[in-house]
Amino acid sequence: xxxxxxLQYANWSEKIFRQMRDGGVDAxxxxxxxxxxxxxxxxxxxxxxxxxxxxxxxxxxxxxxxDVRAAKRDDRTAIIFGFQNPSPIEDDIGLVEICYxxxxxxxxxxxxxxSLLATGCYEAEDPGITRMGRQVIKEMNRVGLVVxxxxxxxxxxxxxxxxxERPIAITHANPSFWHPALRNKSDTVLKELAAxxxxxxxxxYPHHLKDKTACTLDSFCNMIARTADLMGADRIGLGSDLCxxxxxxxxxxxxxxxxxxxxxxxxxxACDAGFPPMPDxxxxxxxxxxxxxxxxxxxFSEEETAGVMGENWLRFYDAGFSKSETAPG
Length: 329
Fold this sequence. Notes:
alpha/beta; TIM Barrel; 6-stranded parallel β-sheet; 3-stranded parallel β-sheet
């Protein structure tokens, strides 16, 4: 079984890389841009290159599913890059392929707010995918950069599913039937996502959990079981949204960036300003085994559990990260 977490934004360190190995984590999709422009994102690629040089026995850069398999054989954790906002491509569609060439494999079309491409889930109105968004989705499909709609509003998400010629992903969110956070997804979105061959990664960020930090493992795994009934057990995986060791100042960067002079966290509560404690059954990368055990207890077979824990994402990587053979129109 391959163990894959399809979203983290930790304060990276040797300690965390060693915890990944201790937990048997074979691959992690790492956010390397929230609001950064292209040049700032390149600097983040550079930082990761230095980590790859410094810790070659622990981590390596992955661009394909086969890279993940090789990392597992070598007892290393494969690092896959992604953006939570389209800001790295600025207003230049040519940067889509450049970012792919540098190693990016996922890009959200919006992060909570309206972007040049799509609408975020905190906006009052959702006019859907923009003219530029349609062209960027086409280019992302061509080069193998996966469309991610984790922070996008419903209409934009449904239109992205329809427009994209390749399956899209919601890398880190939960169903709204379980917990009605703005970021969690409706049954309609989840059904359409599954029908199109897309993937959902379940988030462990406490604001997206029923009962937040007090969420139980049984509740979380039973929610996964209900979602499997809705989407199919082969269309779901994990995207923990683990933000380990990050200072609260990073929350402000994540949620506000540079667009506002005011603190606007969307949830409207001062208690949401910092990182909440994680549930006691998932503190860091060493605790994924608790989820696997919980899935078996919730009625998943060994094969289905292996799928949720990583095999489903690995198949998605195989299909989603390759360049299209179709020439651009």
